[in-house]
Amino acid sequence: MSIFSSLDPAPRDPILGMTEAFNADPAPEKVNLGVGVYLDETGKTPLMAAVRAVEQDLATRERPRGYLPIDGMPAFKAPVQALVFGENSPAVLAGRVATMQTLAGTGALRVGAGLLMLASPDATVMLSDPTWENHELLFSRAGFALERYRYYDRATGAVDVEGMLDDLAHAAPGTIVVLHACCHNPTGSDLAPEDWDRVVATLVEKGLVPFVDMAYQGLSVGVDEDRYAVTALAESGIPFVVANSFSKTFGLYGERIGAVHFVCSDAAEAARVLSQAKTVVRAMYSNPPTQGAAIVSAILTTPELRALWEQELAAMKDRIKQMRVEFRSGLEARGVTSDLEFVTAQAGMFTYSGLSLEQMQRLRSEFHVYGLDSGRLCIAAMNQRNMGIVVGAVAEVMKG
Ligand code: LMR
Known about the structure:
This protein is an alpha/beta fold. The chain contains 15 helices and 13 strands.
């Protein structure tokens, strides 16, 4: 008898497992629209010019690799806080924000969950319906009971704002509410600023604990506009958590670079929270790696590189928008008559196609086009070369 004999095989990860299935597919023509990775016109994950410039510069220096502090590279914190909360954020200036470098957005969520488990072990975590598949695994493995709030209205393809507000209004005080700052994953349907104002007012009134996941800052409208939820919450004065990632926005997926921010009541509380969050990290992976933090902090603090990065990010956003237009018109040209307005209305890397599980399975088995079982397709992986295959396959499946 082995210690491990009680373990059944785990189901394949709904997102990264799809890449495994894609890699194992021997078909010569196949398209991976499963995982949320931006690919350029040539089908490659681009190395951004701003990143390459920093890496070339770093390569010329002698850089011994001692341990970073548990909470990350000191030079990384201030520019990242300015990016996430805006320049001269009153909350940051008051010392109310405890920031830690993390292993990308997932690491930020996990460290945030670990700290919240210390602070409020009996709290429930409320997720949007639907949400990023990994939220469920992550928060339940951290030890929380989960609930859902209404979010996406399948009939209209828009956010069910009234349903969301109603569910939040009935949540127990102290409930942790996971919110997507922009480019909602998987639906691509976001709250408008005036909706955020109402959501924030309800969170404040009901004593709820917002946990904002911001993995796509700059890929919806712009770097400044996309932090609306974060600044509105900071202005409200309530404590909350933000997880941000540099995977998509800097193309640094494999560097695992992101940050978690605990917005506290005052500076003394922020210091206590930081000390506890360090114990969470120390018990999991001790301290974070160097390269991603060195790249991000250099780009954010060097004006020419910052401008270059913003330009490149805007070009990525625009290319995705163009792919939405081509995907939609391609389907229409192939005789899909249902309303496809949602394709161009949604924001971010995904389109939530409305295709059923059976239709998504057919896309894979018959056409070797891989999306998620939820119907999510990664628009950011479409390009002029694969568009014909993709629209041909999706149109066939949509028409039944
Ligand atoms: C996604 O949603 O596909 C990305 O965030 C990648 C991941 O880790 O799931």
